[in-house]
Amino acid sequence: MAMRQASRGGKPSESNTTYEIALFGEFFSKDLPAIMNRITLHSESAHQMHTREIVFEPFDAHVQREKGVDPILLRARKELLEPDAKWVFYSYLKPESVRVHPDATVRPWATVQVQGDILSFASTLGYVRRSQIYKRGYVFRRGALVIQMFQQEKVDEKTEKPIPAHQDTLWEVEVKTATPVTSSKDKPLSQYVDSVLEVQLLMKGLLDLRRKDA
C-alpha cells in the first residue's frame, strides 16, 4: 500500500495538493472548566479521546540532516477508545510561507489507513520508529473542523503503556480541518483559514490560538 503523497510547493489552485489548516494553543489546568465550557458552547458534538501516536523517521535521517535536509517524518495514530479503530498513517510537508498564510498554519498533508503490523509497514517504506506518545482529552466537532484538547502522557519503556499525566501538565489545543482539504475556485483555502480564525476569535481573552511552523 502506498501513501498518497501531497506535492511540495504547488500553487494554491492545484487540486492534487491536500492541506491541513490549523491553529495551536496551550493552557494551565486551572483554566480547563472555563475553556471547555466555551468550546462546548460553540461546537456541534464532543467526545473523549485517548490516542496513541508513533513518529517514524527515515533510516538515513542523520545523513539527511548532515546534508542540511529536514527528513520527512511519518506518523501513525490510533484512537484507543474506538474498538474497531484502525491505524492512520499521515505525513506533513513544510508549512506554506508566513507571507502567504500569516494567520494560520497551512501545510501539505497526506494520509492513509493501514491494517496489520504498522512497524513492518513503516519498515517497508524505509522508516524506523523514533518516538511515541499518548494523548488523553476531548475532541469537539465544529463544521469542517475538529478541536482537540488534550494532555500528553509519557510512555512506560518496559510495557509501552501510558503513564497518566501529572495534574499540572499543560493542556494543548489544536484547531484544524478534520480531513485533508484542497483549494478550488468554489472553495479556496482562505475559506478554511477563515473557519479556524472564527474559533480564534471565539476564544479571545481566554485562550491564545496561534500559527506555528514546527
UniProtKB/TrEMBL annotation:
Keywords from UniProt, A to Z, are: Activator, Nucleus, Transcription, Transcription regulation
Record-linked InterPro entries: Mediator_Med18
Record keyword Lyase present: no
Q: Where in the cell is it found?
A: Nucleus
Q: What's the chief localization of this chain?
A: nucleus
Coiled-coil stretches are none
One Pfam family per UniProt: Med18
PANTHER family per record? MEDIATOR OF RNA POLYMERASE II TRANSCRIPTION SUBUNIT 18 (PTHR13321:SF2), MEDIATOR OF RNA POLYMERASE II TRANSCRIPTION, SUBUNIT 18 (PTHR13321)
| Quaternary context | Component of the Mediator complex.
Describe the task this protein carries out.
Component of the Mediator complex, a coactivator involved in the regulated transcription of nearly all RNA polymerase II-dependent genes. Mediator functions as a bridge to convey information from gene-specific regulatory proteins to the basal RNA polymerase II transcription machinery. Mediator is recruited to promoters by direct interactions with regulatory proteins and serves as a scaffold for the assembly of a functional preinitiation complex with RNA polymerase II and the general transcription factors.
The similarity comment for this entry is: Belongs to the Mediator complex subunit 18 family.
Protein name, per record: Mediator of RNA polymerase II transcription subunit 18
Q: What is the lineage of its organism?
A: Eukaryota, Fungi, Dikarya, Basidiomycota, Agaricomycotina
